[in-house]
Design goal:
mainly alpha, 2 domains, globular, 233 residues, two-stranded antiparallel ribbon
């Protein structure tokens, strides 16, 4: 029993440390950009993108604070439901905001509108259906920690193996949006004269290099490193 308690205590402590670190970084970013936000966003016209910005920015802070404070108990029923709802709200706001930017970049093209709407609808259905099934399975087996334990929370036997696939449509759709933006920006001027795009691509390359270094498949890891990291540097 002591070993089981120590394992769950370690999980709880690690989650608390990670949540506190993420919150500290988020607050630090807010402090750095708050003055520009007041000048550029607060005084601007009330629009849908402005609403999406405030929801994603400040609701995200609320979500991180509740996670750090462990208000919806660790892995408990209310916590799982809150996680599902809050994460989807944030993902929706961010992606819808990006869609509006891409739509504007392509001069409000009807074909782009149809493509984006179809892709977003397909992604939403995939995420909601798989998440609902996965969370329903987990909610059925959620078990609270024994009353005598000094920490509060819950546990469940296991997460469905396929549950991680709920993030694939999110990653795929956002990659698609990035590709559309990159193509449009690239078409405006010589590639070497787009410093913002170059910096974004540089960060993507660094991310791929980091992922490659931790791949369990040696072939994919080496291939990614050689094709992306070496040319980039």
């Amino acid at each position: 029993m002591d070993s089981i308690v120590s394992v769950f205590a370690g999980i709880s402590q690690a989650r608390g440390i990670h949540s506190a670190a993420a919150l500290a970084w988020l607050v630090y970013d807010y402090a750095l950009s708050f003055e520009e936000e007041v000048d550029l966003i607060w005084s601007s016209e009330d629009t849908v993108p402005k609403l999406l910005y405030f929801i994603s920015r400040y609701f995200g802070l609320v979500v991180q604070c509740t996670t750090c404070a462990n208000l919806p108990g660790l892995f408990c029923r209310a916590g799982l439901i809150w996680t599902f709802i809050s994460l989807y709200i944030l993902a929706f706001c961010v992606e819808f905001s990006l869609m509006l930017r891409v739509y504007a970049l392509y001069a409000r093209s009807r074909s782009i509108f149809v493509i984006l709407s179809t892709a977003f609808a397909a992604e939403t259905v995939w995420v909601v259906v798989l998440s609902s099934i996965g969370y329903a399975d987990m909610l059925r087996v959620v078990t609270p920690y024994p009353a005598g334990w000094q920490m509060k929370g819950c546990f469940y036997s296991s997460t469905p193996v396929w549950f991680r696939d709920t993030w694939l449509p999110l990653a795929g759709f956002e990659t698609f949006l990035f590709a559309l933006m990159a193509i449009k920006v690239y078409s405006y001027r010589p590639f070497g004269e787009v410093p913002i795009l170059l910096r974004v691509l540089r960060d993507v390359a660094f991310l791929l290099c980091t992922v490659a270094a931790n791949m369990s498949n040696p072939f994919l890891g080496v291939t990614t490193t050689v094709c992306v990291c070496f040319p980039h540097h």
